[in-house]
Amino acid sequence: MDRNVGAAAGLSQSDREELAILALARSEPITDLAVQHGVSRKFVYAQKHKARCALDDAFVSAATDDTVLFQIPVTKRWLRQVIVALALMCRGSYLGILEFMRDVLGWPISIGTVHNVLLAAAERARVINGAQDLSRIRAGLHDELFHGGKPVLAGVCAESTYCYLLAAEDHRDADTWGVHLLDVAQQGLKPDYTVADAGQGLRAGQKAAWGDTPCHGDVFHIIRQCEGLANTLSRLAKGATSRREKLEAKFGGAGQSAPKVGLVAELALARQAESRARDLARGIRTLIQWLSHDVLALAGPNLALRRELFDFITDELVRLEPEDVRRIHPVRVALRNQRDDLLAFAGVLDKKLTGIARTLEISQSHVREACMLHRLPNSSTAYWQEWSRLQAKIGDKFRALLKAVRRIMTRTPRSSSLVENLNSRLRTYFTLRRHLGNLYLNLLRFFLNHRRYMRSQLAERIGKSPRELLCQEDARASCCARDEGGPFGAAL
């Protein structure tokens, strides 16, 4: 073996190439070639593989560069679809679309042409959006975003992510919201409830338009406000610690005289301030973690117990408020005023869990335990220990129970995070325009509702569009049935 390795290392490049060619030609057996060149059979096979790869690459490259893969009929209608696709899928600017059409397709056009194509598509999109049946939506998510100092009102279906409202307005008061909610109600929208932040105009507008339809609170915003308070107090506690350490550094140094009485008193006050700041920060942090991880968590106790815990937390904030009124008071008031709205999701979840218990003929306590199981990460030992315990207790119905509980938990929204996600997607389009028109927003809404998800945390959404999820049908097939070209063909 050592002799063969040495012979292989001594072969020149031309000898290796000749050996590879002979191996590819199969003119002689591999064993004979190895003996003739004083190398191993493994070495001969390696040279043959290198030559085969180089040969394949040469022919593949030639086919990729020179072979016509397919041909398409280029019509003016197809070119208009390209313009709309560049504007929406690629977020292209007007000048970018002009450059692509001129340099890639060899079809020079004007800015006016691009504008007219998008305007016609937007008008068609407005008609299609207005004809959509919204009666399947059971939970709506509402929010406001701002562009150029003016609000854009948005509404999204919590389950399908279908956007049923996207309108730029000068105001976001109750009348403005009420008018738009009345408009979508004419398309059949009558949700069981909505989820929104504490915006007064939004809530007043919904009450005026939809009467007693509940508007649940968005737990994300209040938790972020509470965590902001906890972080601020933690920084203040660290600052108090730094001040105390600086004062202590002035004591005990070599060659220093005895500290002055005033400095000793100042250090004593600094230590007291540090202790109070640290205790306050620790107390607030504990309450906020309890609020977010237990009271406002999706998997948690029933509504009655959550209310008791919520009230205990607000009472503790009242007790701690004198320590820092300016920072604690706004959070405490917000929690007190929004309690019922923030905990409304728990009432919805309780009803669904009761329905599961009735359907599967299982005690409600077991159903609640299956719900609480989701508080643990499924990669932990505690999760599987609890899983095994419940399975032994419930028996054959355990898997059906777990599946049903998981399903209702994913379909019980606590926040308007989906509409927040929509807002982040819209930002990339808004940056291309200083002024937004509702026709343009109609085109954006049509595109986002008919665009299929390439990835999602929920497997049932992958490969489907929001409209398909809403209507429970193949949205792409229905678009192509009306007009070839998918959603862009339908909008032209």
Provide a quick synopsis of the model.
The chain has 492 residues and is an alpha/beta fold.
Mean pLDDT: 87
Largest sheet properties: 5 strands, mixed
Might you state the CATH topology name of the largest domain?
Nucleotidyltransferase, domain 5
- Please indicate the count of domains: 4
- Identify the quaternary structure here: single chain
Tell me what the CATH architecture of the largest domain is.
2-Layer Sandwich
Give the strand order of the largest sheet, numbering strands 1, 2, ... along the chain.
3-2-1-4-5
- Share of residues in strands: 5-15%
What does this structure look like?
- The protein has 492 residues and is an alpha/beta fold.
- The protein folds into 4 domains: 2-66; 130-215 and 415-490, Ribonuclease H-like superfamily/Ribonuclease H (Nucleotidyltransferase, domain 5), CATH 3.30.420.10; 219-342; 346-410, no CATH class.
- It is 65% helix and 6% strand.
- The protein has helices at residues 2-10, 13-25, 30-37, 41-66, 76-88, 94-103, 111-130, 174-185, 200-210, 219-249, 261-295, 303-320, 325-337, 339-342, 344-360, 364-372, 381-394, 398-410, 417-430, 438-450, 466-471, 475-482, 486-490, and strands spanning 139-147, 150-157, 163-168, 193-196, 215-217.
- The chain has a 5-stranded mixed β-sheet with strand order 3-2-1-4-5, sandwiched between helices.
- A hairpin with a 2-residue loop joins strand 1 (139-147) and strand 2.
- Helix 8 (174-185) packs across helix 9.
- The longest helix has 35 residues, at 261-295.
- The radius of gyration is 34 Å and the shape is extended.
- The N and C termini lie far apart (72 Å).
- The relative contact order is 0.09.
